[in-house]
Amino acid sequence: MNNPQKKLIGLPLYLVMLGMLIAGTANTVLTKWQNCLQGVPGPSYIPNKLQTFTHPYVQSANMFLGEMLCLGLYGLKLLYIKMQKDKGMPVPMSPGTQAAGVIQLKTDINPLLLAIPAAFDLIGSSLMNVALTMIPASVYQMMRGNIVIVTSIMSILFLKRRYFRHHWTGISLILFGVILVAMKGFFEVKDPTKDTETTNPLGILLVLVAQLFSGGLYIVEEKLLGDYYLDPLKVVGLEGLWGFTLMVIILPILQQIPCDEGPLCYYGKVEDTMRAFRDFDANKLIIGLSIAICFSIASFNAFGVTVTKNASSAQRSTIDTSRTVLIWIFFLFVHIPDVPKETFSFFQLFGFMFLVFGTLLYNEIIILPFFKMNQYTRIALEKKKRANLLDSERSTGAGEDIGYQAVSPHAVYDAARNQRKIAMKMEEAGMGGGHNRLEGLGLNKSEITVEETSHKSHISYSSAPSFQKEN
After folding, report:
1. The domain containing residue 34 runs over which residues?
2. In a domain? residue 396
């Protein structure tokens, strides 16, 4: 017997949102701190920079290990359901889960398929970790706002999605904000009298390249998982398992590739994994931070399940924005031994403001009532459909507005995907005579909510599917 799930509201929801905010912020802060810690002392002729824990590919393996912990959370959930059934107790189930069964979305998947998106995730995350060794954490976080632009363009090219005037305006504002933030790296002058961190333009370039693979991950997951309604904890956990397995294979190979020492090559190898283990032994704090990063990733996913299921898009955007602000404030004012402080930049401030406003406009949290910006929002389209004013030629996919995205696309399996799948299948069911079966369950599109969702640790700066997966 199934019971409808109760929606979390009030103080309990705000506490979960706070937990998600803290876990997401901690992940970036801890990773940056780890980059600055001293491990095994190097020869006297090696600059101090080359004595720090600079192992971005090892950190990627650690990230995937954190995602694997989500399989444990998924297992606990299955155990709870089994215990409830054994006791003859009702098992809470969201209307979305019930609808997924009625409209025949697949709820099980061959784990091998998830190795493909895991490969995209591996490349993108590794490049991001390399970039974090070159640029301040706040710049790193803000530059990830570019994911909205990348995935929007890829969605048009590969998924035939359609965007409207308010979307393109939001994208333009985000692009301008990214450019302003990037300018900090090109115009910043380091004060030799202060221990402050500068921005390497190469790091900014790596973030932008990494977003191409994050966008590719989004497209691959949309193509592969289009007919599935899956538990996000299971998806994230399995992708973490595949990512970690791939890193175990790749790390010994990178160990054997020599290179000239520089920003992309520390210790004379692409990745000196053996030195990383010696660093662990030399400085136990590095081990402690690795463990903390793992649990921050798992916690971020666990809190994300509840937040995306119960919170509004405006509330989720507040978490995303607050996360970036907290990281920025932390490194501006909090002193951690061996970690250089960030410097304030008006380029970065104004860039961040454009990023936030562009994202809110894109996600229709802010709707401008002029220049026809409000003509093709989700609410406006629904009103037109109800009034029979929108003909099929203005649709964005097969039948009505299937494929229309009113939220930022994001490279992670999450609630927005499940919601779109159910909406699409319900449209098809309505046209194909299946609508009565849905009504028999007491379900309609306005009632459907996704059972759960998740955000990977390297979440981007886009909002409602998420502001994601943030490293």
Report:
1. 2-161+199-340+410-440
2. no
Rounded to two decimals, the pTM is 0.81
Give which of 96, 118, 38 is closest to 286, Cα–Cα: 38
Q: Which residue has the tokens 């898009």?
A: 313
Query: In this predicted structure, what is the pLDDT of residue 63?
Result: 94
Asked whether residue 448 is domain-assigned, the answer is no
Q: Is residue 465 situated within a structural domain?
A: no
- β partners of residue 258: 269
Token readout for 358 is 């562009």
Q: Output the CA torsion sign for 419, 423, 425, 426.
A: positive
Cα-based distances in Å from 430 to 96, 290, 405: 16, 50, 20
Tell me how many helices (H) and strands (E) the chain has. 16, 2
Integer Cα distance of 105 and 226 in angstroms: 9
Instruction: State the chain's mean pLDDT as an integer.
Output: 78
For residue 186, what pLDDT band results from cuts at 50, 70 and 90?
confident
Q: How far apart are CA 218 and CA 226, in angstroms?
A: 11
Confirm whether 141 is domain-assigned: yes
- Where does 198-311 show beta strands of DSSP type E? none
Give the pLDDT band (50/70/90) at residue 211. very high
Distances, alpha carbon 139 to alpha carbons 135, 177, 265, 313, 450, in Å: 7, 11, 22, 24, 33
Which of 126-135, 192-201, 232-241, 418-427 has the least mean pLDDT?
Answer: 418-427
Task: Tell whether the model's pLDDT for residue 99 goes beyond 70.
Answer: no
Listed in order, strand segments (DSSP E) in 70-139 are 91-93
**Which is more confident, 380 or 7?**
380
What's the number of domains the chain is made of? 1
Residue with tokens 């809470």: 92
Minimum mean pLDDT among 91-95, 127-131, 235-239: which range?
91-95
CB atoms closer than 10 angstroms to residue 371: 10
**What are the Cα distances from residue 464, in Å, to 58, 321, 406, 461?**
30, 12, 9, 10
Supply angle C-alpha 249, 255, 261, rounded to 5.
140
304 in Cβ contact with 448 (< 8 Å): no
Computed over its alpha carbons, how large is the radius of gyration of the chain?
Answer: 23
Query: Could you give the C-alpha distances from 226 to 25, 213, 399, in angstroms and in order?
Result: 31, 19, 16
Amino acid identity, residue 285? L
